[in-house]
Design goal:
The complex is a heterodimer of chains A (152) and B (93). Chain A has 152 residues and is an alpha+beta fold. Chain A contains four helices and ten strands. Chain A has a single domain, classed as Aldehyde Oxidoreductase, domain 3 (Alpha-Beta Complex). In chain A, the strands form three sheets. A four-stranded mixed β-sheet of chain A has the order 1-6-8-2, with helices on both faces. The longest helix of chain A is centred in the last third of the chain and has 18 residues. Chain A starts with a strand and ends in a 6-residue tail after the last helix. Chain B is 25% helix and 27% strand. In chain B, helix 2 packs antiparallel against helix 3. The radius of gyration of chain B is 14 Å and the shape is globular. The termini of chain B are far apart. Classes of the chains: A alpha+beta (152), B alpha+beta (93). At the A-B interface, strand 5, helix 2, helix 3 and strand 9 of A face loops of B.
Chain lengths: 152, 93
């Protein structure tokens, strides 16, 4: 398991290659990359600042990964999340899951993302033509996390 | 004899995102009065400061809390040495 919080960009291909290197049991790797959009809630986003709670962030993500590992037959999970100043088209988050078969990898990857959205202590502040604003949490994210039906 | 000093319960409070900006501080050390032993009690104590403290922590805008870096509820017990954070619902990913 690897969890990294960093301001630098990441290379998904390199991370995937590193995760499955030398493990011939791996038959599937699912990856998700979250990206900054140019529009959010009807406003143009010039850039955003991502803040987090050092210490708790890593702990919360590690807990989510543990839950994924207890629920699906997977080998490894890695999460890279960026913080600091980001602009549209920049990568924000990477989740990679390896398993023997695709079903477990797909589901565990989506689970980790859904839980990260509602449990990991990150906050986005956007710069728009109307001024700076803190992004508000979405009810749809709680619904997405809720459908996995596990206790937080 | 030091009848009082060893009973003082000190906690570290941390504020993030909208709360940090509205409250004008990122962290502080506070002594818990004898009657304050859970998160609800602490929140009431901070709201009594008035102004942004009262409006941000009233619950009209959603607020979450963590004790020692685990998500916590109003009845979560707090005590000496704890790290307690208040923040808006998270928006990462």
């Amino acid at each position: 398991m690897a969890v990294r919080v960093q301001s630098e960009d990441f290379d998904a291909g390199r991370e995937i290659a590193a995760m499955r290197a030398g493990n011939a049991q791996v038959g599937a790797v699912a990856a998700f990359v979250g990206v900054v959009r140019e529009m959010n809630d009807g406003s143009a986003v010039a850039d955003m600042e991502l803040e987090h709670y050092p210490g708790m962030t890593e702990k919360a993500i590690a807990k989510i990964i543990d839950q994924a590992k207890s629920r699906w037959n997977i080998f490894d999970v890695m999460v890279v999340h960026r913080v600091g100043r980001l602009k549209p088209t920049d990568q924000i988050v990477l989740v990679v899951v390896s398993s023997a078969h695709r079903g477990d990898a797909f589901e565990a990857c989506e689970f980790v993302m859904d839980y990260l959205k509602t449990r990991a202590p990150f906050w986005k502040k956007e710069q728009t033509p109307q001024g700076a604003r803190w992004v508000e949490s979405r009810a749809s994210d709680d619904v997405a996390a809720g459908r996995w039906n596990v206790k937080a | 004899m030091l009848p009082v000093a060893h009973n003082i319960q000190m906690v570290t409070l941390i504020y993030f995102a909208r709360l940090r900006e509205s409250l004008g501080t990122g962290s502080e050390q506070v002594a818990l009065p004898a009657g304050v032993r859970d998160l609800d009690g602490l929140r009431a104590m901070l709201m009594a400061r008035g102004g942004a403290w009262a409006s941000e922590l009233a619950g009209t805008k959603p607020v979450r809390a963590a004790v020692n870096q685990d998500m916590a509820q109003g009845d979560t017990r707090i005590g000496d040495g704890d790290e307690i954070a208040f923040f808006p619902p998270v928006t990462g990913g």
